[in-house]
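Hi support team,

I submitted a single chain yesterday and got back a structure, but I'm not sure I'm reading the token output correctly. Could someone confirm the output below corresponds to the sequence I sent? I've pasted both exactly as they appear in my results page.

Thanks,
R.
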Amino acid sequence: MRGLDLQHIRAFVAVAKEGNLTRAAEKLHLTQPAVSVQLKNFQEELNLTLLVRTSKGLSLTSDGEEILPLAEKTLASIHQLRKHASLMQKCLGGRIALGTTMSPEITRLGSLLRELVTSYPRLRASLHHGMTGYIKSELLKEKLDAGYYVAAVGEELTPDFYSEHLADFTHFIVAPKGWRARVVNKDWEELAQLPWVWSHPQSVHSRILTERFNKYGVIPNAVAHADAEASMLDMVHSGIGLALARQSVALRHSEKYGLVVLDAYPLKSSLYFICLSKRQHEPAISAVLQAIRVTFQR
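Hi R., thanks for writing in. Yes, this is the structure output for that exact sequence:
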């Protein structure tokens, strides 16, 4: 059997429905001889007699009655395929790599992903969690397309980056339970001499504190290091030293575990969503930027 021709299938269905070559030709916007040839070729392709002439026109044979619903189903599938392809042309697809940091509740990550799925169902996002410094460096290498970044207040992103401001945070120094007399009313030079639980250089905690201690020309006494805020707080609980924590976290741990909060020394940071300036108008990145704007307007 030769490959089936879609035009032949259409001709057969039209003639079967109309029972008349002339009306079928008009429906297909073809000449009657052309439809007759297509119908003849289709029957030859199948090696079946599908239609016979009667006094009333062309009627389906028993083979024709069996083939007709299959032919109609084929045409419907072709129509659906073309319709889907048309939608695909209009709908943004592909993949985008996003850098995430902090907790999903703070970054509203779930809401962002829901907005992307709703507005751009063919765009696939892959998530890469890490410290904000890591996200920034991976964006420069173009290993990530966009992501969250937490900057200390006063820290300016270079023109290489486009940013959307999302939220502001306050951070407090926290000290172990029972250290109130050791930390209250102390200046930065005195605080630097106390033991500190330090964070990774790429973290916002490290950048905030480094900027502050540099301002006073002192080097903090870092006796331990941790990569996550939770680990830092565990060390504070254990009495190892001071650390920095977001206001909500610091106050919660103070109320629940008795940690000392130095609220006289508030330190600020801001959450941004960033990408490379030269890439902000790429379709996928532009879509994510729009989704993040919608997410934080709610």
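A quick pointer for reading it: The chain has three domains: 6-89, 96-149+275-297, 169-270. Let us know if anything else looks off.

Best,
Support desk
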